Amino acid sequence: MDSVPNTPPAQLRRMAAVWEQVLKKGGIRPEDSFFTLGGQSVMAGTLVRAAGERFGVRIPIRTLFEYSRLGEFTDHVVGLALPTAPTTVPPPDAGPSDAVSTGTVPPDVPLEMTAFQRRIWLAEQIDPSVRNHVPLAWSVAGRLDPDRLRVALGRLVAEHEILRTRFVDEDGGWSVRLREPWLPPLELLDLGEAPDDTTDDTTDDTTDIPDGVTEWLEAALRLPFDLESGQLLRAALGEFADGRQVLLLCVHHMVIDGESIPVLLAELDRCCATPDRPRQVVQYREFAAHQREQRDSASWHTDLAYWESALEGASADTPLPAPERPEPNGALRLSLPAGLLDSLRAVQSEHGVSWFMVAATALAVSLHRWTGLDDVTFGSPTANRNHPRFAGLFGPSLNTVVLRSGVTADSTVRDVLLRMRGEALGALEHQAVEFDDMLNHVKPARRFGHTPYVNVTLNMNLLDDHVAVLDGARLTPLLIDELRSDYAKFGLTVTMVQLEGRLIGLVSHRGDQLGAEAARDLADRLAGLLARFPEALDEPVLPRD
Q1: Closest CA to 442 of 293, 320, 303
Q2: CA distance 46 to 387
Q3: Mean pLDDT over the full length of the chain
Q4: Could you please report the per-residue DSSP string of 328-377?
């Protein structure tokens, strides 16, 4: 669609401002597609919420996938309910971080865990060896001053309550309390001689990570956090002999998730730039209160009914070929060709699918072929922060949704793609129900060590958004494959990482549920299908007699 004759130019400009804010791109034209602009499923939820608030109308998330170009999307939205559009509009650069906190909370006032935090806490109570640590590492282009970084870390903790939250055991139950601000120690590491480059321009070779970096992160992962201390952050700044630096963090999953990492870096940069100018922010307890308010609402019960119907008759377990004897956990990379993202643009635009839907299709088809089953399920973490107020929230907002793929003898890869499109859209529209609430309602059969429906998990990690500037230095994420095997939570986890326009696939597995040889076989199947995906759409999913 090259023009939008039914939409006034002023309305088109208003909508373009929303798109540019969410997609972080300027100069978006009416004919530009959400998918060719790099849009993905997480952004879709944020975009339709923001557009709905701007135009005063509720927009189903699937609308963006059916009207994926700016012009046609605007035309459709304007036609929904123009009379209810607000008369005043916040500036396009206004974000949820500008919202004001509801005040301070005394340390002796108990708060409430979110469902995600309860799940993480329970996992550690069942198995004390479990480490729900999140290791983070960035190469630094420029220079970070240790003293300024220490001050910024202290300011970050003071302003964001989640980083000084205590999880306290009281009378057999757990509650959340706040502690006073604290100053995270910054360990300074002498890393000696640097490798030729700490980044890698290929998509299939292991990044050359200095031993000192891996050693610090491995030690940080092994050392348990004291959940009652309210100090769930460790930090280090490593320096090579030639002056190059690496920033390292280890944070407990109770206080951070992937969507919080860009917030962490942006807030840390602000604290470096203006350490004496604190501002009030949306606090995690406000998000917890919002989740509690949504529970048992009419829409919540509608979402619960959706999951009951979607999973009716589904097996709670996608079987993996366990080794005869338990093996060590493992992690490996998929061998993916350069330019894969570009080669998939046409498929995305033609079928109105995101990159996540393509990856989900490739995984589903690979599982069908690998297991010979005509019905498989797998899980995917999703950021349950579509409300614009919480788009810039610091703290974990993850939920887990289930995707189900059913095929017949005549099904093609294209059929699965369309099925995954519907599954993903349905999951996003009904993600408000927490995974644990869904399990308690559906009551699937359980097997020790296996999480129902999601023992195979697909994780999309869009690190392009995590490349950041901190105090004038540019930070680029470092991927350390071997660490992924140390904290494998599910039988099989496929992680697709998008970093500076490159696509990297990582597979981690629990050695008691899946052997290294079988994991490599699945990885090769998955990589092969992704590499030829546009040409494979008419292939049968299962062998035909």
Answers
A1: 303
A2: 7
A3: 86
A4: --EEEE----TTHHHHTHHHHHHHT--HHHHHHHHHHHHHHHHH--SEEE
Residue type, 157: V
Per DSSP, the three-state class of 112 is coil
CB 407 within 8 A of CB 368: yes
**230 in Cβ contact with 118 (< 8 Å):** no
Max avg pLDDT among 43-57, 335-349, 359-373: 359-373
H helices of 27-130, where? Answer: 41-55, 61-66, 70-81, 115-126
pLDDT score recorded for residue 104 = 66
With H, G, I as helix, E, B as strand and everything else as coil, classify residue 84: helix
**From 123-137, 178-192, 482-496, the region with the lowest mean pLDDT:** 482-496
Residue 441 has pLDDT above 70, yes or no: yes
| Among candidate residues 320, 335, 332, 378, the one with its CA nearest the CA of residue 530 | 335
Closest CA to 385 of 45, 2, 76: 45
Cα gap 209→211, rounded to integer Å: 6
Contact 288, 161 (CB under 8 A): no
- The pLDDT value recorded for residue 487 is 57
pLDDT of amino acid 107: 65
**What pLDDT score was predicted for residue 462?**
62
Residues sharing a CB contact under 8 Å with residue 203, sequence separation 6 or more, in sequence order? 336, 337, 338, 340, 502, 503, 504
pLDDT confidence tier of residue 109, bands split at 50, 70 and 90 = low
Model confidence at 484: pLDDT above 50:
yes
Residues in the chain: 545
Confidence of residue 106 (pLDDT cuts 50, 70, 90): low
Question: Do β-strands 468-470 and 473-477 pair in parallel, antiparallel, or remain unpaired?
Answer: antiparallel
Q: What is the mean pLDDT of residues 441-461?
A: 90
User: Mapped to the 3 state alphabet, what secondary structure does 420-457 carry?
Assistant: HHHHHHHHHHCCCCCHHHHHHHHCCCCECCECCCCCEE
Could you report how far apart the first and last alpha carbons of the chain are, in Å? 44
Whether residue 283 has pLDDT greater than 80? yes
Measuring CA to CA, which residue among 383, 446, 429, 374 is closest to residue 406? 374
Global pTM reads: 0.85
Distances (CA, A) of 448 to 39, 128, 130, 321, 491: 38, 16, 15, 16, 12
Closest CA to 379 of 356, 345, 396, 349: 356
Instruction: Tokens for 293, please give them.
Output: 């308010």
